[in-house]
Amino acid sequence: MRLAVLDTNVIVSAGITPGGVPAKLIFDWVLNGQVRVVTSPAVVAEYREVVRRPKFRRYGFPPLWLEYLIEESLWLQDPEPWVQPCPDPQDAPFLALAHAAGAWLVTGNGKHFPEAVRNGVTVLSPADYLADLVGA
Hints:
Blueprint: E1 2-6, H1 8-16, H2 21-30, E2 35-39, H3 41-51, H4 65-72, E3 74-75, H5 92-101, E4 104-106, H6 115-118, E5 123-124, H7 126-135
Parallel strand pairs: 1-2, 1-4, 2-3, 4-5
């Protein structure tokens, strides 16, 4: 089974566009048990905080499937802080978690994770991750 850390933007995109690639990844692969999402307290706190922002209410947020995804995730403790400075410091916990779990990081904001800060973590867009799954 594949392990993946999902950046918050993947969760948001899946909730906004049910027919899009992030939604296909979550509904067809994660919620069907073919990909295991790795979470930690800090990551779950960010998911829950972001999906409750007023700007997402018009999309029916928080999405009903989010708590199920969280419950079915592989939970790890928050890893040590990431030593490489990221363009957006709020993204560092996702990179640290992926590194600690040996998981791939799936994000719609690849530019927030330049090669120089990855320390060996594979970072893919939802489309590239889905293509890898389908090709496997």
